[in-house]
Amino acid sequence: MDFKNSIDSLMHQAIFDSVFPGAVLLISEKNRILFHRAYGLANIFTKRPMTVKTLFDLASLTKPLATTVALMKLVNDNRINLEDTLDNLIPDFQNTDKASITIKNLLAHVSGYPDYRPYYKILEKLPFQQRRLKLRKCLLAEKIENSKTKMVYSDLGFMILAWIVEHISGNQLDRYISKTICIPLGLKTLNFIDLTTKKPAVTFAATEKCSWRKKILEGEVHDENAYVVGGIDGHAGLFGTAEEIWRLLICLINAYCNRINALQFKQQTVEYFLTEVNNTGRTLGFDMPSKHNSSAGRLFSPKSVGHLGFTGTSFWIDLDQFIQVILLTNRVHPGRQNEKIKNFRPRLHNTIMENLGQNGS
């Protein structure tokens, strides 16, 4: 069985085994797409099929693909420095126990902030116009650990990073990303879905049957904390297709290799962001394959970066071989209890990497 047939068979088996209702898989090597196919259903209730044009709620892929890239742009343009502290960036943090936290600490998840808080339970009781301010007051009041060495993967840290982007740029996060990232790259769908405006006329992969919102979510951010402030925040809210994620990542890879890129990123900027931070198993804003039981499998090189999203999304880039694997699924549709993807991801990645280099084209 050749490369494409073996991957195709594995994806169809995953649908049959209810790993996820639907998916889009894109595989590329050295800036060339080798494989790009859709499987299963975008919505199990309407029976709408998945296509390569379907938009996915990317969940925590928002962290590297939106917030981190926005900060990369600000660093590249000399508007911020990664060692800048919160008290120098945002006046509200002056004279607080968070004053000395740096952008780098937040990107590397070593800021002392906890992983998660259900802020939406407080915010939903307020008029919409007051929620963002209240969220930021909650972030200011949050108890933190003083240690800047312990790695705690934190949504809260990326909420603060979005605040920094907005404060420095003078633009709402989605508008800054649209203006400086998406438009220059010609990306038409990779962005946030602003819940205060009319939903765009595109097709979405459905996610959870939400007990809080009492409906199937479709084209509406799954994460409750992002939803309650209108769908736009630094930790979640980004939507997109596999192809547009690939185009953004190709831009980063080209900059990493010191090639011309549409965002005019300097090689040293991107290289710094994609280098492991102090043996944490993470780079600035990106994850790296863990030494044991990695979702990337066992064959991606140690010099690889990627990220996972709660809704069933992921990407991995091998920076030695310049192989990209983007897997977008709606595994939380209709419920988040389905965790079969944990075993499927490494199996898929191992199969891909075992075949590439033999007859991958």
Structure description:
With 361 residues, this protein is of the alpha+beta class. It has a domain at 68-174. It is 35% helix and 14% strand. The chain has helices at 3-16, 62-76, 86-89, 103-107, 120-123, 128-141, 155-169, 173-185, 224-228, 242-256, 267-273, 341-355; strands spanning 22-29, 32-43, 48-49, 56-57, 191-192, 209-210, 215-216, 238-240, 304-309, 313-318, 323-329. The strands form 3 sheets. The chain has a 6-stranded antiparallel β-sheet, with helices on both faces. Strands 4-8-5 form a 3-stranded antiparallel β-sheet. A two-stranded antiparallel sheet has the order 6-7. It is globular. The two termini are 14 Å apart.
H/E topology pattern: HEEEEHHHHHHHEEEHEHHEEEH
Number of strands: 11
What gap, in angstroms, lies between the N and C termini? 14 Å
Structural class: alpha+beta
- Determine the oligomeric state from the structure: single chain
Quick summary of this structure?
The protein is α+β, with helices and mostly antiparallel strands and 361 residues long. The protein has helices at residues 3-16, 62-76, 86-89, 103-107, 120-123, 128-141, 155-169, 173-185, 224-228, 242-256, 267-273, 341-355; strands spanning 22-29, 32-43, 48-49, 56-57, 191-192, 209-210, 215-216, 238-240, 304-309, 313-318, 323-329.
Record keyword descriptors for this entry:
361 residues, alpha+beta, three-stranded antiparallel β-sheet, 12 helices
